[in-house]
Amino acid sequence: MCLFCDIVAGKIPAYTIYENDDILAFLDISQTTKGHTLVIPKKHYDSLLDCPTDEAIRLMTVISELSKTLVTSLEAKGINVLSNAGEIAGQTVSHLHFHLLPRYSKKDGFQTIFSETKHPDYLATLNQIKRDNP
After folding, report:
1. How confident is the model at residue 72 (pLDDT cuts 50, 70, 90)?
2. How big is the CA angle at 116 (ends 113 and 120), to the nearest 5 degrees?
3. Which letter does DSSP use for residue 87 in this model?
4. Which member of 36, 97, 99, 119 is catalytic?
5. Which tops the pLDDT comparison, 63 or 116?
6. What does the pLDDT read at residue 9?
7. Alpha helix (H) ranges present in 1-134?
8. Among residues 49, 20, 24, which one has the least CA distance to residue 38?
9. Cα separations (Å) of 28 from 31, 35, 52, 113, 121?
């Protein structure tokens, strides 16, 4: 069984901030920023890539509401919502989860860096996506 399935089963304690029949949200033990929350489906899916769309919609509804609650109640200035899918993307627990990271300043413990690809072939990329997904 996975770490998050053990939390769902009550084998591992968690600081639960939201729960319904399908979804659980709890404070991340690492607390990258104050209020760092994980939102997971209670049913095991490895990542967003194998989660049914209807389940993803239910998750996103809860994520939207919890994000607003965290920003308001913790007086954050914004929030990052993040889910990694696959080891190459930085996923370390193979159970679908979203990180809600309330943001307080640019120096609050979380950083994202995007860098541009030099000379991307937009048309070839677009055609490949459309070819594989008519």
Report:
1. very high
2. 150
3. G
4. 97
5. 63
6. 96
7. 3-8, 53-73, 122-132
8. 24
9. 6, 8, 24, 22, 39
Residue 102: DSSP 8-state: E
Fold for 3-129, please state it: HIT family, subunit A (3.30.428)
Percent of the chain with pLDDT over 90: 74
Q: Report the predicted TM-score, pTM, of the whole model to 2 decimal places.
A: 0.90
The conformational region for residue 60 under phi > 0 = left, psi -120 to 50 = alpha, else beta, is: alpha
- 97 assigned to active site: yes
Q: Which helix (H) or strand (E) holds 19?
A: strand 16-19
Q: Is 40 helix (H, G, I), strand (E, B) or coil?
A: strand
**Residue that the structure tokens 């319904």 belong to:** 20
Cβ contacts of 82 within 8 Å, gap of 6 or more: 98, 99, 101
